[in-house]
């Protein structure tokens, strides 16, 4: 099927040879896309984990061209895969809002103490073609580490905006104290980093 929604042409396979089933699936897909656009989202769903992996590939290729620091393709992917994908997973990236990031920050702080990492004894990682391991530290990350990781969060969502798979706009269907502005991680991650400077 092919249709236009949110100013974009969308092509999808219906994965069936049955005409009636194809018609039913086409209507469902169109209805979902129409609903998403009317509610300030992109017409198609982009799971966070897929966008995150695409961002990792971009970081690696840009580093190879000399457009990024060589430490980013080494240090960023483990953070993205263990923490960001671990928490946001299959959630559509354009549905992620400030409360989700706030919950992620708290989840990340307690990851190694009372969260998913509390029973992990060793961390395996790739370095120079080898896969060594080190003991996991079951402690709350330092403020500087939290700020550093939020730089990755901000960079990932800024790239999603550039790719057009995360929207930053005003949506009249969601009026509220801020007159319908739907925050994006691109904007508030910077405020979060600034706020953390005052935490001790």
Explained architecture:
This protein is mainly alpha-helical. It contains 6 helices and 4 strands. The chain has helices at residues 19-38, 48-64, 72-88, 98-109, 143-163, 185-196, and strands at 2-5, 8-11, 122-124, 133-135. The chain has a two-stranded antiparallel ribbon. 16% of the residues are buried. Mean pLDDT is 78; it is low at 169-184 and 186-200.
Furnish the topology, listing elements before pairings.
Elements: E1 2-5, E2 8-11, H1 19-38, H2 48-64, H3 72-88, H4 98-109, E3 122-124, E4 133-135, H5 143-163, H6 185-196
Antiparallel strand pairs: 1-2, 3-4
Helix pairs in contact: 2-3, 3-4, 5-6
Assembly form of the protein: single chain
Largest sheet geometry = 2 strands, antiparallel
Number of strands: 4
Number of helices in the DSSP assignment:
6
**How big a fraction of the residues is strand?**
5-15%
Order of helices and strands: EEHHHHEEHH
Strand order of the largest sheet: 1-2
């Amino acid at each position: 099927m092919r249709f236009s929604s949110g100013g974009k042409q969308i092509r999808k396979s219906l994965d069936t040879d049955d005409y009636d089933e194809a018609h039913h699936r086409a209507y469902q897909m169109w209805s979902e896309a129409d609903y998403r656009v009317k509610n300030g989202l992109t017409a198609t769903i982009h799971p966070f984990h897929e966008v995150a992996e695409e961002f990792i590939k971009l970081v690696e290729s840009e580093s190879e061209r000399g457009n990024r620091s060589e430490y980013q393709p080494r240090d960023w992917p483990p953070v993205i895969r263990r923490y960001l994908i671990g928490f946001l997973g299959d959630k559509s990236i354009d549905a992620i809002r400030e409360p989700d990031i706030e919950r992620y920050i708290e989840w990340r702080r307690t990851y190694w103490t009372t969260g998913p990492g509390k029973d992990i004894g060793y961390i395996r990682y790739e370095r120079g073609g080898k896969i060594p391991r080190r003991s996991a530290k079951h402690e709350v990350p330092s403020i500087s580490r939290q700020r550093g990781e939020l730089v990755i969060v901000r960079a990932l969502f800024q790239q999603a905006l550039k790719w057009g798979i995360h929207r930053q706009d005003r949506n009249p269907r969601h009026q509220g104290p801020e007159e319908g502005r739907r925050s994006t991680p691109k904007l508030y991650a910077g405020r979060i980093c600034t706020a953390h400077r005052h935490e001790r």
